[in-house]
Design a protein that fits this description.
single chain; alpha/beta; Rossmann fold; Alpha-Beta Plaits; TIM Barrel; 3 domains; 8-stranded mixed beta barrel; 20 helices; about 45% helix; about 20% strand; elongated; disordered N terminus
């Protein structure tokens, strides 16, 4: 074991900074070496050519350049120009040493940071100037690294917001636009062509974005993986700018066309927080997601009204739960295999009868609550209400009718999910089979192993699992061989498409046949006509739900189906 004094030590504050001293006069050179050598490591260059050669290979370890202007060969002014023109080491501070006072203005214009006059002042003056210059340069470098995205060199989001606020301070009366630029399906690009290709695309977007703000004014940042934000003086049209950026971004080695989309919040309300302004631009960008003919979205009154409604619904959520404004409706499911359809189960579907706004469509509040996490609390409410209703039907009609409830993707990440469900089951005197869990196909696509393990645990507890929205295109068909599911529920849009104008049911038949191969019953939802029921029966579909039998109805109205089935 090494003793303390023999151990190799590395401490940043004990390391000497390196100075590149460019001086051809041996007397001056030795004088500076004597003055500075105790504090700094000195690297000597006697000519401009030597200095540039040293910088090309050692710039990462050089802290400062002391540059004599009167050099043989390449003159000091030209060396300064070349240093500041090279992106690799243009940030290095250069102190010019000269007896020519007139050269100071030119050198400052070219990027010199300070001067040491000739004849040289006392060594303590030279050391003080160098120390201050090095400290300021290193502070600036730390700030640059902290404020910049490593890949693109653009501002990161946190510093971008700060500089946007400063922009407002200096341009209070300037109309300004907040812009969000996204790359469509960027994760697909990374998966198909590799991260290096994805990084190259991001750098191309960043390069063109920087060109734009340098010309138009404003600032730009890379805020997330494939999202860029601009804060710029207002303009009336963005088609030309968008086309130029799209053309420059180009494609991939596989000729996969890179497509961008843009959201613009024009002439921003400067009373709003910076973050809120870009939230609005993001809403506009999301509005045109997948719209190839209209890739630029503008924040408008329609989006604003949607935003205001969303805020109100979020604010009113807690009171709505407390006051039981959320009502659980039930839609019957009929087994169509046999002489005549017979009731086998139902699905619980939530409705919101808002105290001021009236009945609100689930298509409005469900996506909103999925986005902000409130869906977990709403799901637990629906599970509890449904379990209580199953118990009530058991007591009143002596019948056990399984009811399926939705389990959101966010629920599956809840470590206490199994305990919560078990508590609901036990509290209503039910068994796990009474409550069927519907999990969307898309839930299995992210962190598949973790989700599958969680679903296996639920099945081991006795819960039946239905894969909802099957056929919506998220998962691989090969997943059916190992997914822990008990039934496939075909996406209703898939059903409507099969029985649409073209009446092409071949894919639908194939899906039902595939499920049969895996011994999985199929459930078709969105069924509206007798013709569809008859066709599905011939294809081998097992269970049907939809308006043909009934729309979703309140529990009291649903009881007529129970009575009829007895």
């Amino acid at each position: 074991m090494l003793t303390e004094d023999k151990k190799t030590r590395f401490r940043v504050y004990e390391e000497k900074r390196r100075i590149l001293l460019v001086e051809d006069d041996i007397v001056n050179r030795e004088m500076l070496k004597e003055s500075l050598g105790g504090t700094y490591n000195i690297v000597i260059a006697e000519t401009g050519e030597d200095a540039l050669s040293i910088l090309r290979t050692q710039y990462e370890t050089i802290s400062i350049v002391l540059l004599d202007l009167n050099l043989p060969g390449i003159k000091g002014v030209e060396v300064l120009k070349r240093i500041k023109a090279n992106p690799a080491y243009s940030h290095l501070p250069v102190i010019v040493m000269t007896s020519e006072g007139e050269a100071e203005v030119e050198c400052l214009t070219l990027g010199a940071i300070d001067f040491i006059p000739k004849p040289y002042p006392p060594s303590k003056v030279i050391l003080a100037r160098i120390l201050r210059t090095v400290e300021l340069s290193e502070d600036r470098d730390i700030l640059r690294v902290t404020e910049r995205d490593n890949l693109t060199g653009l501002y990161n989001k946190e510093f971008f917001y700060r500089y946007a606020q400063q922009f407002d301070l200096y341009h209070k009366d300037t109309k300004t636009d907040a812009i969000v630029l996204d790359i469509n399906r960027f994760s697909t690009i990374n998966e198909r062509f590799g991260k290096a290709c994805g990084d190259e695309i991001l750098k191309r977007v960043a390069e063109k974005a920087l060109d734009y703000v340098n010309e138009a004014g404003g600032i730009v940042c890379r805020s997330d993986a494939d999202t860029f934000m601009f804060y710029c003086p207002h303009r009336d049209e963005y088609e030309a700018m968008f086309k130029e950026m799209s053309d420059y971004t180009g494609g991939t080695p596989g000729d996969y066309r890179i497509r961008l989309r843009m959201g613009v919040y024009s002439d921003v309300d400067k009373t709003l927080d910076i973050e809120r302004r870009f939230d609005r631009a993001k809403m506009a960008a999301d509005k045109v997601r997948g719209n190839l003919s209209k890739p630029i979205g503008f924040y408008n009154s329609e989006i604003h009204e949607t935003e205001v409604l969303a805020e109100q619904l979020i604010d009113d959520f807690s009171s709505a739960i407390r006051e039981k404004q959320f009502a659980v409706f039930y839609q019957p499911k009929y087994n169509i295999r046999g002489e005549k359809p017979h009731l086998v189960s139902s699905e619980a579907l939530v409705r919101w009868n808002h105290s001021k706004l009236g009945m609100i469509s689930p298509g409005v509040f469900i996506p909103l609550f999925e986005k902000n996490g409130l869906i977990q609390e709403l799901d637990r409410y629906v599970w509890s209400e449904t379990a209580a209703q199953i118990r009530k039907w058991k007591e009143e009609y002596n019948v056990t009718l399984p009811v399926s409830v939705n389990v959101s993707r966010i629920d599956l990440y809840d470590p206490e999910l199994t305990e919560k469900l078990q508590k609901i089951i036990d509290g209503n005197g039910l068994c796990a089979g009474d409550l069927v869990l519907e999990i969307t196909e898309s839930a299995y696509t992210e962190n598949a192993e973790q989700i599958i393990e969680r679903v296996k645990n639920l099945r081991n507890m006795g819960f039946k699992i239905e894969m909802d929205d099957f056929g919506s295109g998220y998962s691989s068909l090969s997943m059916l061989s190992y997914l822990p599911i008990d039934a496939l529920k075909l996406d209703m849009h898939f059903i409507w498409s099969a029985f649409g104008e073209r009446k092409d049911t071949r894919l639908l038949e194939a899906m039902i046949g595939l499920a049969a191969l895996f011994k999985l019953p199929t459930i078709a939802e969105g069924v509206e006509t007798e013709e569809q029921v008859t066709a599905l029966e011939k294809m081998g579909c097992d269970i049907v739900q939809g308006y043909y039998f009934s729309r979703p109805v309140p529990a009291e109205e649903f009881e007529k189906f129970i009575k009829k089935a007895q």
